[in-house]
Specification:
With 64 residues, the chain is mainly α. The termini are far apart. α1 (3-32) crosses α2. It has helices at residues 3-32, 44-63. It is built from 2 helices and no strands.
């Protein structure tokens, strides 16, 4: 693995960690307000996670 590949992998892992912490903060905020369980998924980090998880399915549907 080249240095560029390592830098790319570290960047992706750092972005995932930042997004995960942001989502966790939204979950904690939602629980403190006694909101429904699905409210964190309707926030920006929640929608980004849903998009990232559904992207392979979307690409597969478009390619077929």
């Amino acid at each position: 693995m080249s240095l560029l590949g390592v830098i790319k992998a570290v960047a992706v892992l750092a972005a995932a960690a930042i997004l995960g912490n942001w989502f966790l903060a939204e979950v904690k905020k939602s629980k403190a307000k006694n909101e429904p369980w699905y409210m964190p998924y309707l926030s920006i980090p929640g929608l980004l996670i849903i998009l990232a998880l559904s992207l392979p399915v979307i690409v597969w549907i478009v390619s077929n």
